């Protein structure tokens, strides 16, 4: 019997987002194993009652759920919480049966350090618990902006020719290889109805460059953007300062 | 001195209005004035994740709705309260829809703060803040997540002082008042 999965993509940035890029990659790995995947962009879905019904029906048919979300202020964004509430209500109303289903969550932070995502992933684990989904495991992604610009296979292709002691390989190639391997193991496991081994997820707990280097690069990006639109002088404005 | 209460309850909540009332009464006793924003009654559109509040219109969200007013009131308060039913260990969607729109209160630039990366401050002063979450019954896992979330928020909000408190819907009036007093005392004492 064909297995089904549901991919819940929770970024307002749609297909330009790391949440999409990474969740879509996991979906493609599931499809390679003959599992059909239905995707829902929650910002569009939750505005439309027919789409909500379609999403709930998809979850009801699925043995695997992929939730991929950005991290906003240490936790789930508004729309991701609303999504969890919508699914929880549907479960309470009996619209989602008690069949075993696994939840894999991906949390994407703009900060370099992966661990900023830890609380959000714990929240997604509680969501799984509330709805009797089996928690398959959570992927804490730091510096996630990289994956908004590149897919995992695309990035691996770009660094393929670099020697291992090249700094670009160390910063981009090595962690992406670890992530790719973890995703592939995760998909193998969840396809067989198993959870992701903890040791596989622990491999993701790395900070890939000195904090100072990330800060320097990140801050330059903001200045570059501001220079293009002529707002550099206004960046430090305090529009709501108490008079 | 002023306070701002961001009420993150759903429309049918029975306990949060009582909590808000007790906080407001207690603060008024100390001549601290302020207001309660019932976020579930406000039309606040979701954050677009566009970062234009950092670069194109620095400090101001590009969406012109009540979300802008909330951010302004937040930074202008001396005591900021988040009151929320605890959802999966975190905040309610009603509260979070306003908070997500407030990132313009920070700068886009990064810096090292407490040995990790955080944003730079935009303003010279940020409010003390207290978060009160409600639960129907004790839930160790969710309470731990909630407490840690408030602690993490205090780093990203640059709150000089912060407290978190959990109130159960079964708590009697005296217990609720005692818990609120404890939060206010910590914010006040350490602020002297």
Measured on Cα atoms, how large is the radius of gyration of chain A? 19 Å
The top-level CATH class of chain B is: Alpha Beta
Main sheet specs of chain B? 5 strands, parallel
Write down the CATH topology of chain B. Answer: Rossmann fold
The unreliable regions of chain B are none
- Give the terminus-to-terminus CA distance of chain B: 13 Å
Whole-number average pLDDT of chain A? 96
Question: What helical percentage do the residues of chain A reach?
Answer: 40-55%
Q: For the largest beta sheet of chain A, what order do the strands appear in spatially?
A: 2-1-3-4-5
- H/E element sequence of chain A: EHEHHEHEHEHHHHH
The dominant shape of chain A is globular
For the record, the CATH architecture of chain A stands as: 3-Layer(aba) Sandwich
Order of helical and strand elements of chain B: EHEHHEHEEEHEH
Number of strands of chain B: 7
List keywords for this structure.
heterodimer, A: 243 residues, alpha/beta, Rossmann fold, 5-stranded parallel sheet, 5 strands, 14% strand, B: 192 residues, two-stranded antiparallel sheet, 6 helices
Would you kindly provide a brief summary of this structure?
Chain A has 243 residues and is of the alpha/beta class. Chain A is built from ten helices and five strands. In chain B, helix 1 (16-29) crosses helix 6 (173-189).
Molecular structure report:
The complex is a heterodimer of chains A (243) and B (192). Chain A has a single domain (4-231), classed as Flavodoxin domain (Rossmann fold, 3-Layer(aba) Sandwich). Helices cover 50% and strands 14% of the residues of chain A. Chain A has ten helices and five strands, in the order βαβααβαβαβααααα. A five-stranded parallel β-sheet of chain A has the order 2-1-3-4-5, with helices on both faces. The model of chain A has no long low-confidence stretch (mean pLDDT 96). Chain B is an alpha/beta fold. Chain B has one domain: Rossmann fold. Chain B is 37% helix and 25% strand. Chain B has helices at 16-29, 52-55, 66-76, 93-99, 140-157, 173-189; strands at residues 2-7, 33-38, 79-85, 106-113, 116-121, 128-135, 162-168. In chain B, the strands form two sheets. Chain B has a five-stranded parallel β-sheet with strand order 2-1-3-6-7, with helices on both faces. In chain B, strands 4-5 form a two-stranded antiparallel ribbon. In chain B, strand 6, helix 5 and strand 7 form a beta-alpha-beta unit. The radius of gyration of chain B is 16 Å and the shape is globular. The model of chain B has no long low-confidence stretch (mean pLDDT 94). The interface between A and B is large, with 50 and 48 residues.
